[in-house]
Amino acid sequence: MTKQTKIKHYTKRDYAAFAYLAPWIIGMLVLQLYPFLSSLVYSFCNYKITGTPSFTGLNNYIQLFTMDTEFWNSLKVTLAYTLYTVPGKLVMALAVAVFLNRDIKGINLIRTLYYIPSLFGGSVAVALLWKIMFMDNGVINAILTTLHLPNVQWLGDPNQALRTICMMEIWQFGSSMVMFLAALKNVPADLYEAARLTAQARSRCSSASPFRKSPPSSSSTLSCRPFRLCRTSPLPLSSPMAAP
Length: 244
Prior knowledge:
The chain is mostly helical. It has helices at 12-42, 59-66, 70-100, 107-120, 124-134, 139-146, 158-170, 174-185, 189-207, 218-232, and strands at 45-46, 54-55.
């Protein structure tokens, strides 16, 4: 028997999907993958724009690790920047997602307002806005002067500049917030209800503790007893029906 090969025919919808994906694929190949591979190749060469690259092996890396004094400082700053921004952005995104995971009036507008900074975070206008706010005679120092507080060199001091840049990066937590919010929305409501009932039962059991000075009431002891039984004794497979 001869096996017949099945030829897949693409529909108009498939071609439309390819057309929509083509700009992103071309941009990723040209603007991300090609620069990454070319920089990796050029790192093993002695290259000038006006000349042709000549292969030098590991000489550039040896010079980087042994002779370049700014490399270790830049590595230290990069690690500090990562330790500040990654946990800070995740904590901020999770806190805001928990706050926005509520059914209150106008919650969709509030979610949109919280997500807007992530859309304009990398634009030139926002960069100029941050510069106006944090320069020596900017808005924040003007507020500090009004409050009779000393001015801060937010971008002039190297130590303070790193903290300022980290705050700017943490401010763009919209994308992480959306992912956390989508995960919280997928949690079934039954789990929240079970957690609430368990917390109430535990609070009643703690109020009926024998270490309290005043004796517990009979209602709290009775309400706590079924909770303890259901946690310590297994349920029978079948129970006889009560006689009428």
